[in-house]
Specification:
- The complex is a heterodimer.
- In chain A, strands 2, 5, 6, 10, 11 and 12 form a six-stranded mixed beta sheet that branches. A four-stranded antiparallel beta sheet of chain A has the order 3-9-8-7, with no helix packed on it.
- Chain A is built from no helices and twelve strands.
- Chain A is an all-beta fold.
- In chain A, a hairpin with a 2-residue loop joins β7 and β8.
- The termini of chain A are far apart.
- Chain A is globular and about 40 Å long.
- In chain B, strands 2, 4, 5, 6, 9, 10 and 11 form a seven-stranded mixed beta sheet that branches. Chain B has a four-stranded antiparallel beta sheet with strand order 1-3-8-7, with no helix packed on it.
- By secondary structure, chain B is an all-beta fold.
- The chains are: A mainly beta, B mainly beta.
C-alpha cells in the first residue's frame, strides 16, 4: 500500500516571500502520479499541480512549482511571491497510473502573513 | 461547466440515527468517489464507482455505511446507525477516465 507523509503540520510566511512544503511517499510502483491540492475554508479540494512520475522535468504552474526527486521519493511544493489567497491547507496526494484513486497526506496548514 | 454538487452542506445528528448524503458529479464523468475527511487528517477513500459499478469499497465500513450510484450518475452515501467517530467531512469527487478528480464542497457531519 502507498503512504504519503507531510512532516510540517503548520507553516507561515510573509506575503511576497517564497515557501516550500515538503512531502515524501512510499510505493513499489514505477508509474504513478503525484499531486498537490489546496483546501481553503470552503472545504473544496482544488488541484494546484500534478506530476507524472515518468517525466523527469518538474511541473510548474505560474507561481507554483515542484521539486520531484523520484529516487528519494520526495515531492516538495514551492510557492513563489506568496499571496494572501494562498492561505489554506495543502495536501500532497498519490495515485497509481491508470487509477485516479488518491492517497492523501495529513496536510500542511499554510498561513500567509500580510 | 457546473462542478460537483453535494448536499446538504452541514448535518447534525444524534448517535444511532441515520443520515444520507447526495452527490451529483460533473456531467459525463464516469468515475465517482466518496472520501471521508476526519478533522486534522487527509481525506480517505471510502468507495469508488465506475459508471454504476463498484471498483473499490475496501475502506467502507459495510456494517453501517452503504452507497449507491443509480443509472451511473447521482450517488447517495448512507450511514446507519451513526457513531460519534463518524463526525467528519464527506467529500464527493468525479473524473473522466485517467484524468484529474474534481471535488465538491463536501458535507460536514457532526454526530452528538
Amino acid at each position: 500500500a502507498q503512504t504519503v507523509t507531510q512532516s510540517q503540520p503548520e507553516m507561515s510566511v510573509q506575503e511576497a516571500e517564497t515557501v516550500t512544503l515538503s512531502c515524501t511517499y512510499d510505493t513499489s510502483e514505477n508509474n504513478y502520479y503525484l499531486f498537490w491540492y489546496k483546501q481553503p475554508p470552503s472545504r473544496q479540494m482544488i488541484l494546484v499541480i500534478r506530476q507524472e512520475a515518468y517525466k523527469q522535468q518538474n511541473a510548474t504552474e505560474n507561481r507554483f512549482s515542484v521539486n520531484f526527486q523520484k529516487a528519494a521519493k520526495s515531492f516538495s511544493l514551492k510557492i513563489s511571491d506568496s499571496q494572501l489567497g494562498d492561505t489554506a491547507m495543502y495536501f500532497c496526494a498519490f495515485a497509481n497510473f491508470g487509477n485516479e484513486k488518491l492517497t492523501f497526506g495529513t496536510g500542511t496548514r499554510l498561513t500567509i502573513i500580510p | 461547466e457546473a462542478g460537483v454538487a453535494q448536499s446538504p452542506r452541514y448535518k447534525i445528528i444524534e448517535k444511532r440515527q441515520s443520515v444520507a448524503f447526495w452527490c451529483n458529479p460533473i456531467s459525463g464523468h464516469a468515475t465517482l468517489y466518496w472520501y471521508q475527511q476526519i478533522l486534522g487528517q487527509g481525506p480517505k477513500l471510502l468507495i469508488q464507482f465506475q459508471n454504476n459499478g463498484v471498483v473499490d469499497d475496501s475502506q467502507l465500513p459495510k456494517d453501517r455505511f452503504s452507497a449507491e450510484r443509480l443509472k451511473g450518475v447521482d450517488s447517495t452515501l448512507k450511514i446507519q446507525p451513526a457513531k460519534l467517530e463518524d463526525s467528519a467531512v464527506y467529500l464527493c469527487a468525479s473524473s473522466l477516465e485517467y484524468t484529474e478528480a474534481f471535488f465538491g464542497q463536501g458535507t460536514r457531519l457532526t454526530v452528538v
